[in-house]
Amino acid sequence: MSAHEIGLVDALKAGNYHFIDRNTFEDKRAAMLLAYDADVFLSSANAITEDGVMI
């Protein structure tokens, strides 16, 4: 949600990039295979521990 809220997703879609939005694929496996071969993959943290380690 943060990437959407700050306009990052829109900027990537509008830029000169091959942007893969996994949410637009019906075949989730095909989307993941495309993303697996990407030069850059953006993701978020699933959790942050009490001592500050991001998981």
Major beta sheet, specifics? none
Helix content: 25-40%
How many structural domains does the protein architecture include?
Answer: 1
- Count of strand segments: 0
- Enumerate how many helices there are, as a single number: 3
* Beta-strand content: under 5%
Structural class: mainly alpha
**Could you list the spans in which at least 5 consecutive residues all have pLDDT below 50?**
none
Whole-number mean pLDDT: 87
Query: N- to C-terminal separation?
Result: 18 Å
Principal-axes shape call: globular
Radius of gyration: 14 Å
**What is the succession of H and E elements?**
HHH
Can you walk me through this structure?
- By secondary structure, this protein is mainly alpha-helical.
- The chain has one domain.
- The protein contains three helices and no strands.
- The longest helix has 9 residues.
- The two termini are 18 Å apart.
- The mean pLDDT is 87.
Give the helices and strands, then pairings.
Blueprint: H1 2-5, H2 8-14, H3 28-36
A few lines on this structure:
This protein has 55 residues and is an all-alpha fold. The protein has helices at 2-5, 8-14, 28-36. The chain has one domain (1-55).
